[in-house]
Amino acid sequence: MILVVGSTGFVGSDVVRRLAASGKQVRALVRPTSDPAKRAKLEASGAALVEGDLKDAASLRRACEGVDTVISTASATVSRGGGDNIENVDRQGQLNLVDAARGAGVRHVIYVSVSGNLDGESPLRDAKRAVEAQLRDSGLTYTIVRPSFFMEVWLSPMLGFDPAGGRVRIYGTGDQPMSMISVPDVAAYVAGCVDNPAVENETIELGGPEPTTYNTVARLFEQALGRTIEREHVTAEALDAQFRAASDPMQKTFAALMLGAARGDAVDVGPALQKVPIDLTPVSAFVARTVTL
């Protein structure tokens, strides 16, 4: 049995779908307040639902009973319920999950973290690294997957990158190499870690097939759309000032992530693909897919 925590999120839901489609027994952790449509979709994929919350340690212990593998893709940074924050979800909630897995005799924990290159101070970085350390010291078999920036987030209007609207926000000069990765590829990789001895007790850096730059992506969108796109550059200095001025942990985290994007995140994906060989989506394919939507 595989327990997926974060099952209603955009990575976790795809992991559930892939594992269930391959014939695995999947248990999806959902909250009582989870979107009914998302719950129904998980059930339709073949997953068994179990109610719980990372903020409720007792519910995690129940959810882990009879489970061989735990996968956690959950984070409060993109999708939040009432009362969620980085401290009680990304740090303490995930630490609760590690403890619950150990207590229930779970064999393998697969944890989705953040790129090792994003190692400047931030509440999210600190939380993720604390969970990684707990996993390594837990005695459990672990796999830590550290993906780079998600294309579907960082090349979207959510963060000011709106080529269809004629304007894109670029962090830094736009010439820094970045190994952006598509969300379905992250899900495919995580699913491929299940029952895979090659990933056991490994910390794996994961990115797209090759580094690219914001300016290259903007030019690809211009070519696909057949028109010029206005560029708004946010300097690393401005982002550093924003980070230092922020008092809210979520604001501080996003400022740190933007600063990380401004500095670049080039990942050698060769070692990761040796362990889980999947086809990675190039940015050009993401652009073509986005433009035709």
Features of this protein?
293 residues, alpha/beta, 3-stranded mixed sheet
Walkthrough of the structure:
With 293 residues, the chain is an alpha/beta fold. It has twelve helices and ten strands. The chain has helices spanning 12-21, 36-45, 57-63, 86-103, 123-137, 151-154, 183-192, 214-225, 236-245, 249-263, 270-275, 283-292, and strands at residues 2-5, 26-30, 48-51, 69-72, 108-112, 141-147, 161-162, 167-171, 202-206, 230-234. The strands form two sheets. The chain has a seven-stranded parallel β-sheet with strand order 3-2-1-4-5-6-9, sandwiched between helices. Strands 7-8-10 form a three-stranded mixed β-sheet. The longest helix is centred in the N-terminal third of the chain and has 18 residues, at 86-103. The protein is globular, with a radius of gyration of 19 Å. The mean pLDDT is 94.
